[in-house]
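Expect chain and fold; thus:
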Amino acid sequence: MKNRKWILIALVVVVAGIVAWLVWGGTPKHRVTYVTTEVARRDINTSVTATGTLEPVTQVEVGTQVSGIVDKIYVDYNSEVKKGQVIAELDKINLLNSLATSKSNLASAQVELEYQERNYERMKALYDRQLIAATDYETAFYSYQTAKNAYDVSRNNLARAETDLGYATIYSPIDGVVLSKDVEEGQTVAASFSTPTLFLIANDLTAMQVIADVDEADIGEVTEGLRVNFTVDAFPNDIFEGFVTQVRQEATVTSNVVTYEVVISAHNPDLKLKPGMTANTTIYTLERRDVLSVSSKALRFTPEPILIGKEDEVIDTEAPYKLWTREGNVFRAHGVEIGITNGMLTEIISGIAEGTQVVSDISIGMPGEGNGNGNNQQGSTNPFMPGPPGRRR
């Protein structure tokens, strides 16, 4: 029994030793490769995205200022019209009757005015000779002024009746295309409280605009003249271009989200774009062409002692912004002056030459993994994350 006990103890010790050797010293060390990127000339852009709606640059709602029954309609959806063209007519019977009544009233008022004027002139002559009392003279003068005012009122009523009759014929106010027709022949329109809309006419569909809603966090970067690209769902493979023509000051609050309207021009020579389409816009708030730049990731790289070999040498600098190069076993920091950035790329103003390969990241793997040439483009692996059993980190 004692021998068996000692044998079991010996086996446990041997197994523990084998496991310890496998875990801490039985596997080869990880291989560290350094991801590099080139300092080169590139385009740097920053942008703001927003959703908007396509509209004609100029569109007019055509209505009527008089009530009545629609007698004739001469246009339909998509009809091309010219300025001054007759597009509809209302029934004119009641308006013609009103005009005739106004003419009769004016004639009666004119007769009354002429009589009262002659009577006033007689009374004035008698009053000047002191043959009548002042009361009779004043009564004649009063009747003359009343008749004169009544004549003016009748004349104005006639002019209004003539104008209303003219309103019964609806003309196109602009050259353009009929986008909507909201009435049919025989329909009654009432203009008692507001002007009813009969047609919506767009001036020129080859010149459109996008009304984009830009979030308040981004509106500070948007100014007039900025270049814009946008797409529509109807043509997902086409990219349309325009530029910002207006940034409106009025805010719109929807579900506690504040947005501002930005007007974007949209050329539409082939008439692909239609009013009401949803546009997904990209507003380029900053554009620099062919500037010396580097991946922004390289500016965040630092050769940590735990990740580099004991034989590697680190030559640092006190510059606030630096890029690292690796020549043999030497890591060298280069202080640089930076310019604009879009998060992915950063402009390099000075401090390092074009074409220099700088370290931007590391890649950690087992021996045989990666290409080992110091230009591995794979993502880095965190050395502190748990690895598979039996591997040493």
Observations:
- The first strand starts at residue 31 and ends at 38.
